[in-house]
Write a structure and sequence with these properties.
This protein is an alpha/beta fold and 219 residues long. The protein has seven helices and nine strands; from the N terminus they run βαβααββαβαββαββα.
Length: 219
C-alpha cells in the first residue's frame, strides 16, 4: 500500500485550491490502482497549522501537532503540493510549512506541483517558484505541473488531460519496481549483447564499470 500526502494551502472553505487538490489526488489514485497497487491518500490542510507554524518560526521548536504532520510528509511515498498564488508566488503560509520541514525530508521524493489563481497570467508560478523550491529540497519534481485559473472551474476549459498526464507521471514513480532508476532502461543480456527496452532499471548482473571503461581514452 502506497502513501500519498496531499498538501493544500487554501485559506477559505470551500476552496478552489482544495478542489484542484482533490481532482489531482483522485487521478493519481486511479493511475496507481491501474498499475495494480493500492494507495492511501491523506490530505493536509495547511491552514490548520497556522498557529503552530507561527510559533515554530519564532521558537524553532515544533509543536506536537506540527511534528506529527511533518512525520507524515517524510514517511509518504509521494507528495502532491497545491497552493493559491499570492503576489505572483506561492502563499506565505505554504512557504512557512515547507520551511518548517527538515532539509532532508523530501530527498528523492516524487512531487507533483499544482497551483490556483484568479488569472492564467500566474501560471508561470509552477516553473519559476514551486519547481525551484522543491528542487532545492532535492525532491523529484514531476515534469508536468497543474495550474488552474478561476475560469477553469467554470467548465469553459478542460483540465482533465493535463491532470491525467501529471497523475500518470507521479503514479509511475510510486509503483516503480525495486532497483529501477529514473532515466535508465532495464538491461537484458542475450548472448552477451545488452538490450535496453522502455523502463528504468539497473541490474546487479552484466558488465561492471571497469569492463565498460576498459580501453576508453576519455576523449
Amino acid at each position: 500500500m502506497k502513501k500519498l500526502v496531499v498538501l493544500t494551502a487554501g485559506l477559505s472553505s470551500p476552496s478552489t485550491t482544495r478542489m484542484l487538490a482533490e481532482q489531482v489526488a483522485a487521478a493519481v489514485e486511479a493511475q496507481v490502482t491501474k498499475r495494480g497497487e493500492g494507495v492511501e491518500v491523506e490530505f493536509v490542510e495547511i491552514r490548520e497549522y497556522a498557529q503552530d507554524l507561527a510559533q515554530f518560526m519564532t521558537t524553532h521548536v515544533p509543536t506536537q501537532h506540527l511534528r506529527a504532520v511533518q512525520e507524515k510528509v517524510t514517511a509518504a511515498d509521494a507528495l502532491v503540493a497545491v497552493t493559491p498564488v499570492f503576489s505572483a508566488s506561492y502563499s506565505g503560509l505554504f512557504k512557512m510549512f515547507i520551511d518548517a520541514l527538515s532539509t532532508d525530508s523530501l530527498n528523492s521524493m516524487p512531487v507533483l506541483i499544482a497551483a490556483t489563481a484568479g488569472t492564467p497570467r500566474h501560471q508561470l508560478v509552477l516553473d519559476f517558484a514551486m519547481r525551484p523550491l522543491f528542487t532545492y529540497l532535492r525532491a523529484t519534481v514531476m515534469p508536468t505541473g497543474v495550474f488552474a485559473a478561476t475560469e477553469d472551474f467554470g467548465g469553459t476549459t478542460d483540465m482533465a488531460p493535463r491532470v491525467e498526464r501529471a497523475a500518470s507521471e507521479l503514479a509511475s514513480y510510486m509503483v516503480r519496481a525495486d532497483g529501477e532508476v529514473a532515466g535508465l532502461a532495464p538491461a537484458e543480456f542475450t548472448g552477451g549483447t545488452p538490450r535496453r527496452d522502455a523502463g528504468t532499471q539497473v541490474s546487479g548482473g552484466g558488465m561492471d564499470f571497469a569492463s565498460l571503461l576498459k580501453g576508453h581514452t576519455g576523449d
